[in-house]
Amino acid sequence: MTRYQHLATLLAERIEQGLYRSGERLPSVRSLSSEHGVSISTVQQAYHLLEDRQLISPQPRSGYFVTHRKAQPPVPPLTRPVQRPVEITQWDAVLEQLSAREERQMVPLGSGNPDVSQPTMKPLWRELGRIAQYQNPELLGYDSLYGMRALRQQISRLMLDSGCVVNSDDILITNGCHEALSIAIRAVCEPGDIVAVESPSFHGTMQMLRAYGVKVVEIPTDSVTGISVEALELALEQWPIKAVILVPTCNNPLGFIMPEARKKAVFCLAQRFDIAIIEDDVYGETAYEYPRPMTIKSLDIDGRVLLCSSFSKTLSPGLRVGWIVPGRYLDRALHTKYIGTGSTGTIAQYAVAEFIRNGHYHRHLRRMRQIYHRNLEEFTCRVRQYFPCGICVSRPQGGFIMWVEMPENIDLVPICCALREQGIQMVAGSLLSASGKYRNCLRLNYALPFDAALEAALRTTGEALGHVLENA
Fold first, then answer.
1. Which of 317, 341, 360 is the last residue of a domain?
2. How far from chain centre, in Å, is Cα 290?
């Protein structure tokens, strides 16, 4: 993060915390330059960035002022799921949601797709073109079951940023994070076992557990600090839980980053009750803070954490390049990989390895973090403008997924069906619960480039929510 970005982030936090109130004049450029020991141009760049985010506005000969904004909607409260083992449902709803991908004119407001349109992706396209040009026959053959060593070496270096020191031989390349999670679950669980999950949670993981005959205990989760350690401990005392599945960094769908103290507390519980932790870190590199937060895997001294990730959210889901660091479960993970898909396709692995090795990946990440953070400000502003009062909205600390909660008596599932007929793909919260809770919630994607079609989709969605609220 550059100096002006760091200063802009600091000022934005002060505005959000109310230290600079709506309409209040901000310190002069010279005074901020003196206070923070930076150049005047650095302060000006920071102010320009805040102006782009519509947090401040200039007034001729008067300086910069905090933009007048509507009051921030409250964040969603601690979730209250059914705290007993349940069998997972919702497959029909998941299939319906997946079918929306085929409709090209659909505005995918509920998808989990990143923005793949940025110019920092061009070196990856060039690398894929070079592979086609030189026609290396080795890239058309079977790869090692572990995956391409060059890529595993690059991933082991990337993982240092999250506090993990792993050897390339500890890493297994997979067909996206989806396969990594599938391998992790099958390496740890047998049919009839029970696992604990955050609530709400990623629907893909839920459907894997359903397919493998595993039951779920949903644990109350806070939209700012993550899974309730106290509720998890109570569940571990009450049920024979085999593992806990978490997305602790840039959570999907709540957007939180679990504080380090909570990550350590969860790991200590796993040691005490001798269970595995399956850590989904697919959004971890998109955290707005720098350096990126530590993973629970970085605390792992006995191999009980299976870390799963991929390049699907940082580069492109179409690459289908992910990985798992299975710890003590490596042998079972290898066998599961072999009987599932065998080796992973080589061409995308080679292209991504070269993209990282040549320094393009970090440049791309820096740009995407800035874009998603700016999109969040823009999106939140439009949600305040178009959505009705009486809602709660999450405040993501990374990634590009937002959670909107309506009053509990509202059912948004039929609204999502109606919106789809108008060309807007939306995901109701019930899709992200084993027991079908959160029918009053929506998951929104703010990675999409902001244009007239997106704004119209948000306006239409807000009007639909307003009508439902009035009728209720």
1. 360
2. 16
Query: Torsions phi, psi of 273, nearest 5?
Result: -100, 5
Contacts of 285 (CB under 8 A, 6+ apart): 158, 161, 292, 313, 314, 365
DSSP lists the bridge partners of residue 226 as: 222
Q: Are residues 407 and 443 in the same domain?
A: yes
Encoded tokens for 331 = 């042998």
Looking at the structure, do residues 286 and 415 belong to the same domain, yes or no?
A: no
CATH number of the domain at 378, please: 3.90.1150.10
The residues, any chain, with a CB within 8 Å of residue 338's CB and separated by 6 or more, are: 145
Per residue in 337-372, pLDDT tens?
999 999 999 999 999 999 999 999 999 999 999 999
pLDDT tens-digit map of 213-266: 999 999 999 999 999 999 999 999 999 999 999 999 999 999 999 999 999 999
Indicate the pTM of the whole model.
Answer: 0.85
Q: Which candidate, 452, 203, 460, 186, places its Cα nearest to that of 326?
A: 186
Residue 30 shares a structural domain with residue 128: no
Domain residue limits at 393: 91-117+366-471
